[in-house]
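Final report, results section. Input specification for complex C-07:
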Amino acid sequence: MALKARVLYDFHSENPGEISISENELVSLFSEEELEGWLEGKNSRGDVGLIPASYVEIIKDRISSNNNNGFSSPKVGTPTHASYSQRGPEAGSVGSGGGSFHTSQGSDDDWDDDWDDSSPATEAPRSLGTSPASLYPVTTTLPARRSSSLQPQAKSSATVGRNLNRFSTFVKSGGEAFLLGEAAAFVKDGDRICVVMGKHGPEWQDDPYPFTCTIDDPTKQTKFKGMKSYMSYGLTPTHTNVQVNRRYKHFDWLYARLVERFPVISVPHLPEKQATGRFEEDFISKRRKGLIWWMNHMTSHPVLARCDVFQHFLTCGTDEKAWKQGKRKAERDELVGANFFLTISTPTVPLDLQEVESKIEGFKSFTKRMDENIVVVNTTINDFARKQMSGFKKEYHKVGQSFKLLAQAFELDQQAYSGGLNKAISYTGDAYEAIGDYFADQPRQDLDPISDLLDLYRGHLANFPDIIHVQKGALTKVKDCPAQEGELHDRCNIISCATLAEIQHFHRTRVRDFRAQMQHHLRQQIGFFQKITSKLEDALQRYDSEQ
Amino acid sequence: MALKARVLYDFHSENPGEISISENELVSLFSEEELEGWLEGKNSRGDVGLIPASYVEIIKDRISSNNNNGFSSPKVGTPTHASYSQRGPEAGSVGSGGGSFHTSQGSDDDWDDDWDDSSPATEAPRSLGTSPASLYPVTTTLPARRSSSLQPQAKSSATVGRNLNRFSTFVKSGGEAFLLGEAAAFVKDGDRICVVMGKHGPEWQDDPYPFTCTIDDPTKQTKFKGMKSYMSYGLTPTHTNVQVNRRYKHFDWLYARLVERFPVISVPHLPEKQATGRFEEDFISKRRKGLIWWMNHMTSHPVLARCDVFQHFLTCGTDEKAWKQGKRKAERDELVGANFFLTISTPTVPLDLQEVESKIEGFKSFTKRMDENIVVVNTTINDFARKQMSGFKKEYHKVGQSFKLLAQAFELDQQAYSGGLNKAISYTGDAYEAIGDYFADQPRQDLDPISDLLDLYRGHLANFPDIIHVQKGALTKVKDCPAQEGELHDRCNIISCATLAEIQHFHRTRVRDFRAQMQHHLRQQIGFFQKITSKLEDALQRYDSEQ
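Structure output:
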């Protein structure tokens, strides 16, 4: 017997296996049992597939659901860093078996075996991966981020009306609570985060002790007498120069902490998970490259680089007790969500709200366009890579083989004076085959890195709608009661400063990364064509020497 | 009412519009009327299309045909230099309308308007273009060359049996008549052609006064007050340094003379004719390139370069009377066919016939393989050219456009420090588009010339089966009556010397041409990739200057 459920919000399917549903639509569910936050069911049009559990309310459970603050499901699926890779059909596809779902508690590494059982915070979700066209959907009530740690601190002391939409990012991030003065926590000096006024507007104060961190080739580790195996990455931060070993699940845990901790900071997405073939060379190399990019963005962010949980992650050695202690401390951190804003110091002169609004609007247009266009770039360069690895290679191979056929025919000639030419033509054939191989190898050097970069930036771009939403929520609230509450303005200023500082940081990093990557690409391409040229010059010489 | 005809020889269709027929098959003809040597009909399998007239015998005319020496048709079509170009479907296709047949009296130029009406010798045919697989068919009785000028001289004084097959190339070329001592003509010293013994065997004596000849871009000429127009080529041979103007039909006339004149010399095929679009730039340029190749092979052949008719063609100025005089002289030349062999002086020591036979066999295998393999090379490089002009170009354009899209998105950013990067990325996009254009232009520089060369050589390779057939015919005859007739041996030696000299010349020219063309190709390719490299270096600099 199929269960009935009412749809709470519009949902547009973005991956194979998902089905689209509309608000208030009645859908049938095949089972109450969720699989990583998804339910299987049928919509009113008869499409069968996966539905995000948090988007529907099961009708037979209606009353108890309503008591549960409107959340119909105890778990919210977080297919967060899926779907940012464009290469091939394998990426981002959601099999109906559900084996390839990507969540912070996915099937990738065996999470529970050497950690505390109680890790509810590892489920702290990000917004569902938004498609480029829906980065900023018309409806701003998409269920996205939910910070359960906020709820205990919510006091009802509002002089300004509360947001009725409990799913608003503004509410869930803690932005509203902070704005209404409901956030309260003790902030140590070490936790203070400074926004300073730079040449181009507010910016995060530079990290006085910048560092980087290398990630070595992962090694395969086993435990339980070889029954279980996993990959371990050696991380060496430059400020300690001591290597620590971490598994992907540790990155994943850290990621969840950071997302929860910093409502208006774009935490770089981790490279996608993969359920199968995780010990295959290609995957390992791709993940490592992704983690290097991720680490680079972490260490170059003045706020993220310095934060306690990241430092714990980078520096804690093999002492199990110390590790667990730091882990618990991070999970019980009070300065998350709304309280994060308490840690921020702003420049003395408050920002002009009009100007802030215009800047935010500009950035919104920017990110929308950037997201749209990098999708095109990514598709194009991945296509180009595929063509080079197949078509281009094949063409040069075919030409090479045909030259060799010519040489073979010429070898039937009994004239002595023909031998040198035959060898030269045969060598030319080899040269063309080699050039074909060069073409096949090249994309790995100069297109894949661009693609990796674009993937990382698509992650950032997917973060910003929520960040902007928090700032806009604050701005709207302040506009509702102008000049009445000085503190409200101050708090809105804090949120605006933090948002603009983050935007500034995004732009700086973007310019740095894209310049570096384009330069790398061009240098690689130049080297590539020079390699071809010298191969051909080599072939040409064979004709001279045999004249 | 359909006429019936009996098929005399196997014919395998090689072009659209033609149908295959087998010896002794009965076919229906739609009309007795020939179109340039072809009849329209239906074979026993029901295929409808064109049949070479000389391959069938119309049944109702049987007796009168037989009286006519077995030739059922007064004209033999000579679709000789068609079908050697591989690029695109337009080349070598034979429309059923017959408008695009290529014969020495084709529809290309209006032949009759300023020449004598009587030019029967312009019909002197070559063998039908043989497909690579059938260069040396098992049956050696393919009707091919017919030298009408031979017949008046045929005397019946044979002590050795005559070849019963009147269609054999051996017979038609005059080889048999010469061998049987039936050739007789006065040979002036100036007509004498020397075969000398070189390092690698018999070879044509070098031309003591070698020359070359340039062919200018053709100019469009009109006559009859603009009613008719034609292309005129300015030829300037280096030994006179005086330009003469010739039309394609003059080349065609010359070609027919040469084929008739030299039974064991491979006269280079003229570039193909084209009925339509003959004033279009591409065609004109292609034909001119073909004529340059042709001229190059003519002037570098010691025998062809020196012969009277070619010299007349190269040196006769605008004096109409002198031109016609030379023309008539050439058409009445006695030293054609069988008599050609009278002009040949051989080295004093006769060749070892066994060795000759083995060399000829080796060359036969060689030409067969070369023909097969250059078909593959030609197809491959033409495919490659097409891919570069379409696919490769498109890919680089797409990448260029996507980089420009990225720059466009980045331009929405209001940060001043981003401007330089945007311009650099946009420039990179332009660079990729330019590289796409380079790829599209390149094949014209380095693949088309190879293709032209291969076309020319396919022509030579199609000539050699007949040449070899003459030599083999002579050898067979001599084997039939060993040591009986010293003169027979001497004459067979002459034929063998001439054949081996021609083979030697072929190899020398081949090695020279392929070496030069491969070098040209590689130099072009090197320049091409260097051009790409400097374009990319240029783009790379934009990033530095804006840092």
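The longest strand of chain B covers residues 228-237. Chain B touches chain A through 64 residues (CB under 8 Å). This concludes the modelling results for the funded period.
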